[in-house]
Design goal:
Shape: elongated
Number of strands: 0
Strand content: under 5%
Largest sheet: none
Structural class: mainly alpha
Distance between the termini: 60 Å
Oligomer: single chain
Length: 381
Amino acid sequence: MNHASKIFPQFYQTMAKVKFTEPLKFLNVVGVNPLNYSNFSLFRRVVSLGLFLVVIILGLLELLLHFDGLETCSRASEAMIVQYQLIIKIAILLKHKKDLVVLIDQTKKFWPLDKFGQQAKLERPHRLLKTFFFVYKTIMFLMTVQYILRKFVSKSNKPLAISYGEKQGLSPEVDHLYFVLHSTTTFVILYAVTGFDGLFFYLIGHVLTELKLVEISYRLSHNRKDKFLETIQHHASVLRFVKKLNKIYSQVLLNQHMSCLFGICFGLFLVSKDGIPPDLGHITKYVPYVISFITQTFTFCFIGSLLISWSLQVPDAIFYNGWSKHHAYKYKTEKIIAIIRGQRAARLTLGGFGDLNLESFNLVVKNAFSFFTFVNAMNEK
């Protein structure tokens, strides 16, 4: 049991639902676990963020003082888009640290999966979520290792990420120093991103099964006003939970969409800049880079669409209840209010500019390819 679980044991109870210990342990490694206030956690945070900032500053110095056209931009785009994403995520995590603790605490008030005797059915989304997160963190680890080992495979005289002084040439000692620094920072990014995204996935997983429980409760409480009113109140609390979650993650989702758009565009440009078809080196170096941004965008957009879809299924449980039966017309005012409330879908937004759904994924990919065409045409001129 880790230090955070000793301090906050109430958050780590065994349950059929996914446990927040899995993503939180990644955040705990780099000292940004919102449940851990220890001095050692603060020390880890200072060291991790300090190394990360050093790499960013070195890259910016090279970009500003030794700018040399396309090559410098190509080197910068490889690392700085991911760095930008992490800056936003850590900033939001630190800003809303208390809000996240409150949300995690509120999940304890969610109904158990066996409340209506359908635990096996409702456990399936959580089992799938556990499997998905295992695959997600495995892919993240493999991409991290691939990024570091590329230095040995390509035998490049450049450090892993853009660094100050590389245009003027680096001594072997400085190159080795950068390799250690960049490798360490890459693992900081791995743990921080995996933990942050995993916490988001698990919070949404709790919301989705709660919406299913509300739907089942509406179907079973047509003849019992007290249970029906209890379900209305619980449904309202779940919708408020989603609004609070959206308040925390909305800006992250917007910045992630924008950065993925540029990441896909520059990745395609780097693949094709030395000619089509690209050689094996360009394929192995940049195609995973492009695929990672596309996959990242699709994953979050799919989750957003799933949230909207499942929330809109809730009022159907009230409406399709056999109106030919006499009891269907009992407390109809409450039923109408519940239906109207359920027709406003629970949703996550992109900074308030649009909804997170598969349509926003199509928009990102479409604009990325359009921007790539423009950049490619400008380069050819």
